[in-house]
Amino acid sequence: MVDHAQFFHQVPDDVLADMLPLAKKVAVAIGLEDGQYNLLQNNGPMAHQVVPHVHFHIIPKPSPEEGLKIGWPQKQVTPEDLKKTLGRIKEKL
Amino acid sequence: MVDHAQFFHQVPDDVLADMLPLAKKVAVAIGLEDGQYNLLQNNGPMAHQVVPHVHFHIIPKPSPEEGLKIGWPQKQVTPEDLKKTLGRIKEKL
């Protein structure tokens, strides 16, 4: 059987269950036991997905100048906003 | 039993196996079925890890200005470099 999924949330649970133990093997084989690396999985072209199938990047960060740089603009939200968002998520879980 | 791990590669496989199916439930509950989101897991303070235990960020990308911005400086490498790196990784797998 060949599975294909463009997006993370389309992958069957039994396939997802195998992915991180495999990624761990690769991280150790690359020699990342000292830490300083990122796991990144992108969904959708706006969110930096270039190849349209689910894959994880394991990105070593040997120095501040190398590896993954991130920016994460923060929004101002009120406690009420957060409470509403939490309620919406809880309803669906 | 309480497990604690600062780094991804320290997490036992049976715990790792549960993480992505759970993340998928959360992604769907947040309403990300249309795509445009990132999964990010950081290891080590230099690699943007702020809280010293393993956790995944699920980051919606509703517009180019919001959500995760990434930079990923590229290095010039020769085919021989790549071959050596592949050999080193394969030895350990």
Automatic annotation (TrEMBL), chains A, B:
<dbReference type="InterPro" id="IPR036265">
    <property type="entry name" value="HIT-like_sf"/>
</dbReference>
<dbReference type="InterPro" id="IPR011146">
    <property type="entry name" value="HIT-like"/>
</dbReference>
<dbReference type="Pfam" id="PF01230">
    <property type="entry name" value="HIT"/>
</dbReference>
<dbReference type="InterPro" id="IPR019808">
    <property type="entry name" value="Histidine_triad_CS"/>
</dbReference>
<feature type="active site" description="Tele-AMP-histidine intermediate">
    <location>
        <position position="55"/>
    </location>
</feature>
<dbReference type="InterPro" id="IPR001310">
    <property type="entry name" value="Histidine_triad_HIT"/>
</dbReference>
<feature type="short sequence motif" description="Histidine triad motif">
    <location>
        <begin position="53"/>
        <end position="57"/>
    </location>
</feature>
<dbReference type="GO" id="GO:0009117">
    <property type="term" value="P:nucleotide metabolic process"/>
</dbReference>
<protein>
    <recommendedName>
        <fullName>HIT domain-containing protein</fullName>
    </recommendedName>
</protein>
<dbReference type="GO" id="GO:0003824">
    <property type="term" value="F:catalytic activity"/>
</dbReference>
<feature type="domain" description="HIT">
    <location>
        <begin position="1"/>
        <end position="68"/>
    </location>
</feature>
